[in-house]
Amino acid sequence: MSPYTSWFWRFMKRSSNKNADMEKRPRSAKPRGRVNAYFTHHLWVLVSSLGVLWRTPMATLMTASVIGIALALPAGLHVLLQNVQQLSTGWEGTAQMSLFLKPGVSEKRIQTLAKKLRGWEGVAEVRYISREQALAEFRELSGFGGALDSLDENPLPAVLVLRPTTEAAEPAQMALLLGKVQKLQSVDLAQLDMEWVRRLSSIIELGKRGVMLLAGLLGMAILLMVGNTIRLTILSRSQEIIVTKLIGATNAFIRRPFLYTGLWYGLMGAILAWILVASLLGLLSAPVSRLSFLYNSQFSLGGLDLETVLVLLGSGLILGLLGSWLAVGKHLQAIEPT
Amino acid sequence: MIQFDNVNKRYPGGYEALSGVSFHLKAGEMAFLTGHSGAGKSSLLKLIACIERASRGNVLIDGQNLRRLKNRHIPALRRKIGVVFQNHNLLYDRTVYDNVALPLIIAGYHQSEVGRRVRAALDKVGLLGKERVMPITLSGGEQQRVGIARAVVNRPPLLLADEPTGNLDPELSREIMGLFEQFNQVGVSVLIATHDHDLISRLDHRLLTLKQGKLERDGWTSEMQERKRAFNNESD
């Protein structure tokens, strides 16, 4: 008789004495460290469900890739929009303000005014375009030279072109500055050459909304995809589910591995999406740098920031878990021992 | 341990599998359940494990009326019942150890406790050396013994067996029955459904005989032996 056998019989006897009051078994007779065992079990299911996926690498990779591509699309567009926005903020720095001066203001007063403006806070540069220069420029660029010749005098006003510093290039500050210059006596009309920047930023807003909508649609697609994959897994393991139910497993116990499988699918998909977007940006960054160099710009393509990565991973996890939750809730109830 | 009070089981479509069945199996008792196929043996076992519910009458397990048992409390009931199946119902994608450990893991036992109990149960059925083996590589008798180890590892007060020797030769069947008797000797209540008359006529236990859904006889296996002898004498 091996030591195990004698231990086993002693153990069975001990338990059989308590048969009569099974219901009222004292708490101390419960298995030791139940809470600890509960977390150990969760950890074990987490690892073993990954192991199960690992054993069928191709099928797992395919499912994860579909999720990855579906996540990479909105994530990639989001990053590109972020870059466009950053680029246009750079352009706002080159925004100009044109001060059209009243006719008859003397050259000397204009020079004094320019000097005064250069001293203002938020003004980086003031350029003076005299009436003659403006005429020459207009003649050259517009092609209306002939029409101008028929006029008795130069109709164009003198202009002071004002470029704000980068810090003052914010729309609100620019509007403030505009109000201030408009009050100057010699200024007839002050105009902000920023309309197109505003239009661009509202186009970007529209694009962001579009990305959100796209992300919502693809998120639903991921839910359905994960749900369907988990459904097939449940069906293929129905015998196992029946046996564990017969042994006394709770629904929560049976549900657990499927939920963790969905979680892993989501996480793997998100990591694949991360890799996809990062390598896409890597491929684009060299040509973009070259292009911006040709435009004398310091702009270079920005990568995924921490926030985007966290949102990407988080939404992958949540979508995977939710998708499997939906499938498990629907299909596990149907499998009962008969 | 098991109490049936005038139990009827009618399936959708009108087929009556059990009608007016009453008996009481006391704690620590061992009994055989026989009858032709279709007599209602499986239905009776299903009512005990709450796989099916009675159409009429009351089934009490360990003092608990199953009619009032909520679905979410069924797992707790099943943990008190060790079930041995004819087709073993093992999980073939995991080792013998993992199969036997499953009831303990479901009940939330600590890892060290699981190891000790699994080895003790496997030792009892004579499979201690096969912990790491996949069940598919074992013979039918060995697989059945894995099934028994899984049924008793959680030390349930009640052990049910549905045709546990159905696919085994007489030698192995006697061994398996010997195991059940040993469990009964330490106080486990045992109910075994079988149609193997030759086997059980050699053992002296209570015998419940079902015929067309009714409990035809509630006696002892020795009586069956006597009847057999009487029958043989008559024909001589």
Write the layout of secondary structure elements.
The complex is a heterodimer of chains A (338) and B (236).
Chain A lengths: L2 H15 L16 H22 L1 H36 L4 E5 L5 H12 L4 E7 L1 H12 L2 H5 L9 E6 L6 H12 L4 E6 L2 H42 L1 H10 L3 H44 L11 H26 L7
Antiparallel strand pairs in A: 1-3, 1-4, 2-3
Helix pairs in contact in A: 2-10, 3-8, 3-10, 8-10, 8-11, 10-11
Chain B lengths: L1 E9 L5 E10 L4 E5 L6 H8 L7 E6 L2 E2 L8 H5 L2 E4 L11 H11 L4 H14 L15 H13 L5 E5 L7 H16 L3 E5 L3 H4 L5 E6 L2 E7 H15 L1
Parallel strand pairs in B: 3-8, 3-9, 6-7, 7-8
Antiparallel strand pairs in B: 1-2, 1-4, 4-5, 9-10
Helix pairs in contact in B: 3-4, 3-5, 4-5
Task: Explain this structure.
The complex is a heterodimer of chains A (338) and B (236). With 338 residues, chain A is α+β, with helices and mostly antiparallel strands. Chain A folds into two domains: 37-90 and 200-331, no CATH class; 96-193, Alpha-Beta Plaits (2-Layer Sandwich), CATH 3.30.70. Helices cover 70% and strands 7% of the residues of chain A. Chain A is built from eleven helices and four strands. Chain A has helices at residues 3-17, 34-55, 57-92, 107-118, 131-142, 145-149, 171-182, 195-236, 238-247, 251-294, 306-331; strands spanning 97-101, 123-129, 159-164, 187-192. A four-stranded antiparallel β-sheet of chain A has the order 2-3-1-4. In chain A, helix 3 (57-92) runs antiparallel to helix 8 and helix 10 runs antiparallel to helix 11 (306-331). Chain A is rod-shaped, with a radius of gyration of 36 Å. The model of chain A is unreliable at 18-30 (pLDDT under 50). Chain B is an alpha/beta fold and 236 residues long. Chain B folds into two domains: 1-80 and 161-236, P-loop containing nucleotide triphosphate hydrolases (Rossmann fold, 3-Layer(aba) Sandwich); 84-155, no CATH class. Helices cover 36% and strands 25% of the residues of chain B. Chain B is built from eight helices and ten strands. Chain B has helices at 41-48, 74-78, 96-106, 111-124, 140-152, 170-185, 197-200, 221-235, and strands spanning 2-10, 16-25, 30-34, 56-61, 64-65, 81-84, 158-162, 189-193, 206-211, 214-220. Chain B has a six-stranded mixed β-sheet, sandwiched between helices. In chain B, strand 7, helix 6 and strand 8 form a beta-alpha-beta unit. In chain B, helix 4 packs across helix 5 (140-152). The longest helix of chain B has 16 residues, at 170-185. Chain B is globular and about 55 Å long. The A-B interface holds A 2, 4-5, 7-9, 11-13, 15-17, 19-20, 22-23, 31-34, 36-38, 40-41, 240, 243-251, 253, 336-338 and B 1, 27-28, 49, 51, 62-64, 72, 75-81, 83, 89-91, 93, 102-103, 105-111, 113, 116-117, 119-121, 123-124, 128, 150, 152, 155, 157, 183, 186-189.
